[in-house]
Design goal:
By secondary structure, the chain is mainly β. It has one domain: OB fold (Dihydrolipoamide Acetyltransferase, E2P) (Beta Barrel). The chain has 1 helix and 6 strands. Strands 1, 2, 3, 4, 5 and 6 form a 6-stranded mixed beta sheet that branches. A hairpin with an 8-residue loop joins strand 5 and strand 6. The chain starts with 8 loop residues before the first strand and ends in a 16-residue tail after the last strand.
Length: about 120
């Protein structure tokens, strides 16, 4: 008998289980770090803030780059699992990314209003 499917869960930290997700309003976007990553600071409806970080060379980074993500837009990143590698190496992580742009006319908060 197989184990029951896991219920999707909002996950703060590492998205590691199929169905883990982060969603909310993008409040800040920064770039940098050792792997030239983009960091999307996402505020959930309950007020918790999580950072979605992805290097431009990763599968997630490439998917995020397909969307013109702006501050005040809505971002949802869902982890779907892994696909075995074709020629050895690490498995390919599979993601679903949904983005809705901000409402026209809304302005992002000033840097000093961002909580970090």
């Amino acid at each position: 008998m197989s184990a029951p499917a896991s219920k999707p869960r909002r996950r703060f930290g590492n998205l590691s289980r199929e169905g883990d997700f982060i969603d909310g309003q993008v409040i800040k976007i920064t770039e940098g770090g050792k792997f030239d990553s983009t960091f999307f600071h996402v505020k959930a409806e309950d007020g918790k803030i999580e950072i979605v970080a992805a290097s431009k060379s990763t599968n997630l980074g490439k998917m995020l780059a397909e969307h013109p993500i702006d501050v005040l837009g809505y971002l949802c990143v869902l982890y779907l699992g892994e696909k075995p590698p074709k020629n050895g190496g690490n498995p390919l992580k599979i993601w679903s990314v949904v983005y809705d742009p901000p409402e026209v006319g809304k302005t992002p908060p000033a840097d000093d209003e961002t909580p970090f």
